[in-house]
Amino acid sequence: MIKALRGMKDIIEDSDKFTYFIKKSSEIAENFCFEYIETPLLEETRLFKRSVGESSDIVNKEMYQFTDKGGNDVCLRPEGTAGVVRAYIEHKFDKLKTPKQWYYFGPMFRYERPQKGRLREFHQFGVESFGEESVYEDIKVILLASKILDSFNINYTLKINSLGCDECRPTYMNSLVSFLDEKKENLCEDCQRRITQNPLRVLDCKNENCQNELKTAPKITYNLCENCNKDFEILQNELKKLNIQFEVDTNLVRGLDYYNKTAFEFVSTEIGAQSAICGGGRYDKLVEMLNGKPVPAVGFAMGIERLLPLVNIEPKREGIYLGIMTEDARDMALNKFNELTNSNKVYFENRVRKLNQHLKKADKLNCKKVMIIGEDELKNGTFWEKEL
RNA sequence: GUGGAUAUAGUUCAGUUGGUUAGAACACCAGUUUGUGGCACUGGGGGUCGCCGGUUCGAAUCCGGUUAUCCACCCCA
Q: What is the domain extent for residue A194?
């Protein structure tokens, strides 16, 4: 038997939840005046090398990368932002710094070891906002994410942090690295490697011993420049006013290289170790990094498969069951089926059955209304009807 | 990439110290004397016991390998 590849899943049992999620989320995004964008699944490999960053695991070892028949070095997209930014620049919106608010959804591919909440092909729903420098755009985006999650009654914790900007991050990084170098001996192997590769990641280490050593580490939020600090305060104040619960997590590091200033993550405690259900933040330098004019941007992405177990939709009766009890009624029923399907969900049972058999089936299918033609109805040209 | 666990029907699982034709529940399909569903009852279909090899008169059961799944690390959505 040919089976789906490792880490790839057919969406069958949850397909109703899946489509419901996309429909509802899109609706909310459109209420925020975000427009739909679809970008290719396949992109040039260097797009991700330059945006996500060569130091990241995603680019380093998780990409589905190959040479196509034209000799191009390509890969299946491991995340959504890079492609959207590429599109923004390619269609020259950067020249005039045209504000653009887009949402997207679709499959992403990462060659990882599968586990709960982690697939090799998975789906994200995300938004990106270009051209708005203000922290109020960050707030808008966080509000949008929380509204989507709230609409499915999902329990979450929102963590926020500020990663600083070009002005304050380098000085902070220097003091962090020198702090880490002093402690180097006491840190785990991974952290020692991270000091040179990605020092911020050390803060995020789950090793207990490391966390003890890091208690006195310099915190980014105490080392922000005036501007970043002001924005981070506005962010917190406005979230409070909007009644969005959050906690500041100075160890929150978004894994992709392109983030700066606001970083946030929605976390669930109900779905296992892969608990991040939505992650995002500001990436003001990314458009430039991909050879566009400097345009600030902010966005987030949600992992749909991780959210589905948290989404509950109550099965409700809907649709019409149409059945016949005599072969002669078939034409009449078919005509009715033709008419009803213009504006109704209709199940047409084409087998001749007894009344109780029809009812049993209609019940099983969760239909709301039953319409049957028997001998009597055929004579009178009517339908026997019942609400379930 | 590392570690641990698991693999028997569509699903959840039984299956004794290796021994007839591998079972149950749920699900599915059909029916229960003639036009009112959910309940109940009766019957039915469905498994090369993950795959390959070995031990044995005989393997779902023991051994080796392999693949996949699950959980965690790592990483991230």
A: 169-223
Same structural domain, A176 and A250: no
Nearest CA-CA partner of A61 in A81, A75, A47: A75
Q: Across all residues in chain A, what is the average pLDDT?
A: 91
A354 and A340, same structural domain?
yes
Measuring from the CA of residue A300 to each C1', which nucleotide is nearest? Answer: B77
Are A149 and A178 found together in one domain?
Answer: no
| pLDDT tens digits, A332-351 | 999 999 999 999 999 999 88
Same domain, A372 and A299: no
Does A127 share its domain with A56? Answer: yes
Point out the domain boundary residue: A181, A201, A223.
Answer: A223
Residues 15-54 of chain A sitting with CB below 7 angstroms of strand B: none
Strands A276-282, A260-267: parallel, antiparallel or unpaired by DSSP?
Answer: antiparallel
Nearest CA among A364, A300, A380, A378 for reference residue A333? A378
State ipTM. 0.84
Q: Indicate yes or no: strand B within 7 A of the C-beta of A117.
A: yes
pTM of the model: 0.90
The answer to whether residues A363 and A388 touch, using CB atoms and an 8 Å cutoff, is yes
